[in-house]
Amino acid sequence: MKITTTLKKKLYSEMLRLRMIEERIAAIYHDANEMKTPTHLYTGQEAVAVGVANAMIEGDVVGASHRSHGMYIAKGGDLKAMMAELFGKETGCSKGWGGSMHLVDVRKGVMGSSSILGGTIPHAVGCALAFQIKDESRVAVSVFGDAAIEEGVFHESLNWASLKKLPVIFVCENNLYSTSTLLKDRQPPVKIFKRAESYGMQGIRVDGNDVVKVYEVVSEAIAGAREGRGPALIEAMTYRWREHVGPNYDYDLGYRTKAELGEWMAKCPVKKYVDLLSQEENESLIKRYAKEIDEAIEFARQSPFPREELMTNEVL
Amino acid sequence: MKYYDAIRDAQAVMMRNNKDVFICGLGVPDPKGVFGTTSGLIEEFGKKRVFDTPACENGTVGMLIGAAMQELRPIMVNQRVDFVLLALDQIINHASKWQIMFGGAQKIPIVIRVIVGKGWGQGPQHSQSMHALFSHIPGLKVVAPATPKDAKGLLISSIEDDAPVIFIEHRKLHNEEGDVPEGVYRTPIGKAEVLCEGGDVTIVAISQMVLEAKKAAKALQKDGVSCEIIDLRSLRPLDTSTVIESVKKTGRLVVADGDWRNCSVSGEIVAIAAENCHEHLKASPQRVTWPDIPVPTSVALEKAFYPTATDIYAKALKALGISKESVLVEEEKEEVFQGPF
To answer: Which class is domain B193-320?
Structure first.
């Protein structure tokens, strides 16, 4: 697969934008105290969402997890609507009913995300089932964390998807921790991508901090699914920089070390490709994104809260 | 037409009318066609729209949510409500909340057919009711038709509804015979039916207990008591106004609910009467329910466990303040049924 420099630059720029969005949220989260929603930041994992989203084409859909900002933004979800959602405003993508963990942008193929581990894995399979029933050449992607594979629904979903050869790709973002519980305390020493074998599908492990590699692997899997070759499981190795939920670093808690964080920061997915652009180009991008984020926050601040009258409707 | 055939007919009519409707579940295309309720569907609509599933209730409901996101209208069939308890995560955490949690961005029009049963030694894990559990959840609709006409009418309304609907069918009703309108026929969700008007006591009944209520009313009529029977039909949303209106008229209430008593729909009906009809009530509301223990298996224990028309009769007399030796209301005939369900 040939990856053009133009594409590489696009991937890099999108990661930079995503990083800046998340870091800005971290910066104002407590100080402003305006976002009263449990927020699971994506900092450090940008290469996965951006690589996956770029491997998808129009019409493809994705179902994501509680750490939902990454896929939402990478897939083209509206930034202002996300920010307003974090502020609990009526103009939010979920009109203030969802918050950080429940983002949606149907037009962009971002199905609603769930805060229940593994919750949207079968949804992606169901979307793929619908594509198969309707004879549509579309693909669904499910993105979830390493702990989600411990849930029964993960196995139910892989079993069904493989049985019916459905056009769905499973992407596991393995960031090594479930809140503060280590992978080795939750799973036997079997690599996650190897689980694919027991469902008769291809399993691939990829460096989840290298956006180009993620893009390549996911593109190939999606192409196969689109041609009717069925699902695949991709394990992207990555690392969450900040605490499980909230804006801080948490190495002081003791479940992981500052040295370990340092090792992963040295493998920063954004920095990896920073040299694709000149210093001036980078500076101009940073300026542009900062302005866009300023505007989104201002939009969220100025937006009205949802009206109480809407609470009387059991179902909208 | 029999109740099971009315269900089959509703599905066939809707699948003919709308190519987005499909049906699946463990055993759907099997030779027995889930008690006859899915017979012939695969022949008419093909295996793309009528198919078996692996044994994964939670995954299946999740997949149907996904299919509904892509504008299909799935029907899931479950041979026992007990199996669906494995899917409570996708039903309660996901399906029920999806529409409101995303500000209306996505609708989840799925129908989850669940079969409940009783008798023939099915025991603690094969004869629970569970309608109270589902009725507790905002965002779900719950219907429990008692007649073939409503089985068809409510199933069609459920398929057309944009919310997830739990469609509860009692195994003991499957062979009930009744008139069923042809073609598309709708029973509105959220509307109870007054089966017979009366002035002395209101009997609110759910699902199979409607049949028992009818028998009890017949016996009470011989005693000169005029009963108003309400077939609740929908458990969520509840038709509170029909209940309130009736209780205000009769001043007496008996609720017959084939389910446990604690935190039940029967409790909810009594609460509605207490909150809205206090000054009209002439006696304490009465409930006919299961004892609050798991369903037993032995035929001898089953007999003691399940309330019948006789219990409804006795509670009605109690509400009326008539002390009289309780007569045995025409008991269910010993079934010709040879089992197993």
So the answer is: alpha beta
